[in-house]
Amino acid sequence: MRAPQKLQLTQGLRHELKLNPALVLQQTHFQRLLELPVEEIAEELMNLLAENPYLEEASPGEATEEDTSAEGSFPEAPDEGPDNEAPELFRTEAITAYDVQQDPFAYYSMFWHEPYASSTTDTSEEEEEAEWQLPEAQQSFYEALLKQLPLLNLSPEETIFAEELIGSLDPNGYLRESLETVLKQTNARIAEINHERLTQYNSSQLSGNPAQRYALDPVAAHIVLHRELPTIPLLTPLTPEQAEQLLKRLQRELDPPGIGARNLQECLLAQLESRPLRTDAERWAYRILKEAFPALARRTWRELLRHFGGELTPDMLQQAYDVIRHLSPRPGVAASGELPITVLPDFTITHDPETGELRLTINDSILPTLSVNTLLQRLKRLPRKVRSRHYKEQQARQFLRQNYVKSRAIVSALQQRRETLLKVMTAILKLQRDFFEQGLKHLKPMIYADIARETGLDTSTVCRAVANKYVQTDFGIFALKDLFTEALPQSSGEGEVSAEVVKQKLRELLEHEDRQNPLSDKQLAQKLDQMGYKVARRTVAKYREEMGFPPVWKRKALR
Question: How far is 249 from 556, CA to CA, in rounded Å?
């Protein structure tokens, strides 16, 4: 018989890594909200207010008892382990002296933690809302073209073709689809309209004669038995020749001319043909576009002069070229009635008039202040599993419990987002102080790793904080990502300079060069080297293309 075993108690330490669902939820919301600009996050918060019953919009200085408490009463997600969140992850009380000692950026967070609405301002709420109100939207480019069709005296078939053509235009006003595709779409709509009219005609005939239901379709009877079509106003499909003629007419009669062109040559010719050619320069411009467009596109002036023999002189060629230069290569852009893209800066950096120091302000006054609804606080103590006969009651309890967890995570994520943005922007201000004080020429090389070392944040967090964010300075509004530039060595070997500074010097050279003898990329690199910036020819070509300057042979003028 086996002897009974004795139980022994031992002491020991054990390391256990446990995933906190509440912390994971907070970090998920934090990463998603961090990369949103101020306009998008305002819309996102309004959607969260509408979806989550626990969230409510509080007044700027208001803080609920639940928000300021440090008690660990935050519940877990349903069907998870016991409640073991760290209460400090969700605290929202003021920054303490211990925080300032541990993290120097906590001082800046405390210093710039301004209320969303100042009680000392004299402006009313209506004036503040009107400040951010966008102007009324104007009619779009396509709507303006459609309104011109009744003025052209088009037939119903031609009107359908014109509508399909306008719907196929790109933002520049060009017809990127083939004319055959537009014609097929037009004839398909014509067939649908004819079918609807025949259906209405047959239904009206059936009401008087029941035997009509066994009769042939009028179109089929016309094709098979050669019967005459009934007196129904049917539309006639367009032919390719009619579509080509109508396209040319629309290119010249729609405003602006050139709309619907399939290439640049057709666009410029339509603009000249839409007006009388009164001068010799306009007539020569038309002949050059029609007969020698490839040579004009290459800007080979000698080839152009040889093409027309002794008829065209260099002086007349220059006058004709000036006429062509004043034509619009993208008529859709000039005719667009859309509003320009407005940027709402996330930060504002100004000089303090008293001390002269730079002052950083985060522009989050349009964001609603979220808090947890105090009337629903008692529902947070609902048990995770409730034995109830009603399934809908269990669903309601689970819905409330999940939304409470989500509401607390969102409020904490918003606070964490604000502190992170201030921390990142403060580091940028520290490293780029000369830029914010003196302008773009004093921008220093800076990469994301520099801000990560300065703030102690991860590089991916810095990238999210910078993405889609703008800062307003005394020199204009800049995207934060544009402040991060690569370093280029100086010719003197004294140090490095930002690539953005080199681009500005390159822009000055290109804008002030001799149009008759433009500088090549190699010559531009030599000029920059003389100014103290050592840049390779390939780098010059890359920067030139980024700034939108064409190659040297396209920048050369005739005289």
Answer: 35
Max CA distance (Å), the chain: 127
**Distances, alpha carbon 452 to alpha carbons 41, 239, 418, 427, 485, in Å:** 24, 66, 17, 9, 15
Residues 6+ apart with CB under 8 A from 123: none
> What stretch of H or E contains 434?
helix 433-438
The closest alpha carbon to 345, from 362, 331, 330, belongs to 362
pTM, two decimal places: 0.51
Q: How far is CA 252 from the centre of its chain?
A: 33
Query: Tell me, what's the pLDDT at 543?
Result: 84
Task: Name the class of domain 487-559.
Answer: mainly alpha
The DSSP code sequence of 519-544 is PPHHHHHHHHHHTTB---HHHHHHHH
Comparing C-alpha atoms, which of 168, 149, 169 is closest to residue 158? 149
Which residues of the chain carry a pLDDT beneath 50? 63-123, 125, 127-135, 137, 339
> What residue spans define the domains of the chain?
20-115+341-484, 140-255, 263-336, 487-559
pLDDT in tens, 239-293: 999 999 999 999 999 988 999 999 999 999 999 999 898 899 999 999 999 998 8
Give 135's Cβ-side CA count (13 Å radius). Answer: 8
pLDDT at 380: 56
Torsion sign, CA atoms 501, 505, 508, 510:
negative
Q: Are strands 470-473 and 358-362 parallel, antiparallel or unpaired?
A: unpaired
Give the pair of three-digit tokens for residue 28. 């998920």
- What is the predicted pLDDT for the residue at 516? 75
Which pLDDT does position 85 carry in this prediction? 39
DSSP 143-200: HHHHTTGGGG---HHHHHHHHHHHHTB-TTSBB-S-HHHHHHHHHHHHHHHHHHHHHH
489 alpha-carbon distance from chain centroid: 34
First-to-last CA distance in the chain? 117
Q: Which helix (H) or strand (E) holds 8?
A: none
User: How far is 549 from 398, CA to CA, in rounded Å?
Assistant: 61
Q: What is the spatial distance between Cα 374 and Cα 66, in angstroms, rounded to a whole number?
A: 7
| Predicted pLDDT of residue 247 | 93
Residue 298 CA to residue 312 CA, distance in Å, equals: 18
In whole angstroms, give the CA distance from residue 171 to residue 336.
8
DSSP letter string, 390-423: -HHHHHHHHHHHHHHHHHHHHHHHHHHHHHHHHH
DSSP label of 498 = E
* pLDDT at site 375: 66
What whole-number distance in Å separates Cα of residue 45 and Cα of residue 48?
5
Q: Where are the beta strands (DSSP E) in 318-400?
A: 347-351, 358-362, 369-372
Burial class (CB in 10 A: 0-12, 13-18, 19+), 410: buried
Q: How far apart are CA 471 and CA 480, in angstroms?
A: 7
Which secondary-structure segment (H or E) carries 446? none
CA within 13 Å, CB half, 521: 16
Query: How do residues 107-144 score in pLDDT, each as one tens digit?
Result: 344 444 443 333 344 445 454 444 444 445 456 778 88
